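Tutorial, part two.
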Amino acid sequence: MVINGFFPFGLLFIDRSPQGERVRSLRTSELGVHISARLNVLPRIVDRINSEVPALFEAVKHHGPEHVYTDTAEGRAFPVDNNLKYQLIADIDSLFGLLSAHAEESRRTALRNFMARALS
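Running the prediction step on this input gives:
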């Protein structure tokens, strides 16, 4: 079963040894669960960011010359709704955090798998 383009219970990758026998399924492995969860969360975060950005663009439309920093004058901040501002910051932080966690877990797993194969 596929929900929103993603497999809900893990990815369907199979790891095979050089001799061709099945070693283990990534579907049931720690990395499979890790990747599947992030693949299901990431589009939701991106959808939230995409729904918040138009409101931010709307706030920026009221930007005037008094808001611009120049060599001779300091600009002023223009008001943006606090809920919008902090939800957007939280969503972008979540996006970067998930991407960073995924990259780190993938790096560790790849290194662990490489070392296991090199030492066997």
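The chain has one domain: 28-119. In part three we will examine how such features are distributed along the chain.
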